[in-house]
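Hello support,

Our group uses your service weekly, and this is the first time we've seen a run hang past the timeout. The protein is DUF5319 domain-containing protein. I'm not sure whether the cause is the sequence or the server load. Input pasted verbatim:
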Amino acid sequence: MLEDVPRDPFADDPNDPSSAMGDLDDAEPLTAAERDEAITDLADVEVFRTLLEPQGVLGLVLDCPECGEQHFFDWELLRGNLKQMIEKGRPQVHEPAFQPDPADYVSWDYARGYVDGVIDTEERH
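Update from on-call engineer: The timeout came from a worker crash unrelated to the input. Re-ran successfully.
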């Protein structure tokens, strides 16, 4: 049965292109402040989802500082990434959204403002 297992074409190759990625098991643990921030972000995502998903919002769009592009994350992917960060110190590997409709996603700032508006409205009534 070992014949059925695909062989790594770069096994033992000193020029393996994946070597630039580093070892995924050697992630730096989060600092206490980073962990607290990720826990706060996870709580925020849960509130955002609770209030925005019924309005048809599929998730958040985030500006990537590394590539300068926008990345679209559905609620489950955001939740999973944050939980993975808290537990393992790094986000999970994921595929980008396939041809997302930008109208279905909102920014973090928009989501925060929406939640603040709901809270303000509830406090007035």
